TrEMBL record:
CDD domains: Era, KH-II_Era. PANTHER family: GTPASE ERA, GTPASE ERA, MITOCHONDRIAL. It comes from Canna indica. Residues 357-434 form the KH type-2 domain. The keyword RNA-binding applies. Residues 305-307 are annotated as: G5. Residues 54-68 have a biased composition (Low complexity). This is GTP-binding protein ERG. Residues 155-162 are annotated as: G1. InterPro entries: G_ERA_dom, GTP-bd, GTPase_Era-like, KH_dom-like_a/b, KH_dom_type_2, KH_sf_prok-type, P-loop_NTPase, Small_GTP-bd.
Amino acid sequence: MKALRTISRVLSSPLSPSSTTKICNSHPLLSSLCRSFATRAQSQIPTDSDNDADPSSTADFDSSAFSLPEPPPAAPQRPIWDEAYRAKADAALFGKRAAARSLPDTVEDDEERERATRLARALLEAALEPPDEAEEENMEVKEEDQRSLSVGIIGAPNAGKSCLTNFMVGTKVAAVSRKTNTTIHEVLGVMTKGNTQICFFDTPGLMIGHNGYPYRTDVRVRVESAWNSIDIYDLLIVIFDVHRHLTMPDNRVINLIKRLGQQVQSTQKRVLCMNKVDLVEDKKDLLKVAKEFEDLPGYERYFMISGLSGSGVKDLVQHLMDQAVKRPWGEEPTTMSEEMMKSISLEVVREKMLNHIHQEIPYVVDHRLMDWKELRDGSLRVEQHFITPKPSHRQIIVGKNGSKIGRIGIEANEELRSIFKREVHLILQVRVARKKSA
């Protein structure tokens, strides 16, 4: 054992290769011990390159290092029909022969016969109803029968645009946060029902100054881009927070609503949505708000909705489907495109970052998708980087011993798995931007 320790100390010491060879060849036993030690793994021996490595070049979060909770197994579904009622329905539908085979030898009174007839009628009415949405998704629609509509959702910051988009699409496509200006670019969400496909475009929050004109530098240039794209949609949804309007009215929001509803657009239809009606205690106040904007000719319809609970959204969706035009679909109805999946992954991670990082840091961080691979086992490998302007911002995002970036990564990875219905390997890295040379 002393010889082994000596050989290990000699080989791990910073000697030149020629010196090591002389020591090993000085004795046959030492030569065999050197060959035996050379076959061992060298992973525990530190090197100068490892010490000089930049700590920021490695991943700050790797989902493979964390054990994510597995979803609970689905409970077996119990039959929704009572066997006695099923037997009575068979007797009402197929006569006394089925009754004699299925029912016990008891005398049925008039009340039980009436109940069985009522149940049989309900079964027949259910069979005549249109197919469910799950069956409609698998229906093949010919191109000449397809109808589509592009809908732009605009409004002031924190009006609930992203929440409404997620609810109508049926899955998360846009980040939702209580912080203002959560949406920083246009987000696409697609809803397909029957032969109709509606494409929703969630836009950054718009604001109008007290002079009645849009801000030229309102949260960078992205809002100007949103203003310029208003006229390209078939239908425009103008949404505002009715609860905030009743408690703390903002003249800038009022100017925005009036400016968009002043004139009737010949090439575009517009509707006004009063969002967050579930927060209004006295519902009579909603009629006062509707009366306040009823003289605006630019809006065809007014809807009182709640994008969070879904109240009134069904009527809005039906109105949108009625406005669809005969046109081939622009998106695949059954599968999610890779570009949309990439956008969703960025939105989910950004939402978790906004939930854990505060003040001005989320707005100065450059969030990028660096790598996207579909592995052989069907799982996804997603690598995203946060590029910060200052080293202090990086320390805040990473947190003590990686606690902050770890929470962001675990929550985002778990939600991405539930959205994509597959295993996701999420890698997050926080880097400091290089200083531009003069």
